Amino acid sequence: SAGNDKVKVVVNGGRELVSISIDPALLKEEDLGMVQDLIVAAVNAGMTKSNDMVEAEIEKVTGGVSIPGLV
Fold first, then answer.
1. pTM
2. N or C: which terminal CB in the chain sees fewer CB atoms within 10 Å?
3. Could you give the CA distance from residue 57 to residue 43 in angstroms, rounded to a whole number?
4. CA–CA–CA angle 28, 9, 27 (5° rounding)
5. Percent of the chain at pLDDT above 70?
6. d(Cα 9, Cα 47) in Å, to the nearest integer?
7. Confidence at 6, pLDDT banded by 50, 70, 90
8. Residues 45, 53, 17, 67: is their CA dihedral positive or negative?
9. What does the alpha-carbon distance between residue 43 and residue 49 come to, in Å, rounded to a whole number?
10. What is the CA angle 16-49-36, rounded to 5?
11. CA 7: distance to chain centroid?
12. How many other β-carbons are positioned within 10 Å of the β-carbon of residue 30?
């Protein structure tokens, strides 16, 4: 999420953007450039969180052993 949760995204473990939610009030009070920046920030945060979750699950399965090319 970004902009105090005014822009929220959901990213799955396959690093695909599943959904996006924009607070309608944001569209009324901010300019287009700001909204676009918040969307980019929210998607990047979602991708990072998704990647962290995938890496944590792989570490659980492999017991912390690094397997090249797995992620």
1. 0.69
2. C
3. 21
4. 5
5. 96
6. 9
7. confident
8. positive
9. 10
10. 65
11. 11
12. 16
Return d(Cα 48, Cα 41) in angstroms, integer: 11
Instruction: Decide if 26 contacts 58 (C-beta within 8 A).
Output: no
pLDDT in tens, 18-37: 999 988 888 877 678 888 88
For residue 65, what pLDDT band results from cuts at 50, 70 and 90? confident
The dihedral formed by the CA atoms of 62, 10, 15 and 59, expressed in degrees to the nearest 10: -10
Q: Does residue 71 surpass a pLDDT of 70?
A: no
Is residue 44 a contact partner of residue 4, using CB atoms and an 8 Å limit?
Answer: no
Q: What is the C-alpha radius of gyration for the chain, rounded to an integer number of angstroms? A: 16
- What 3-state class would DSSP assign to 13? coil
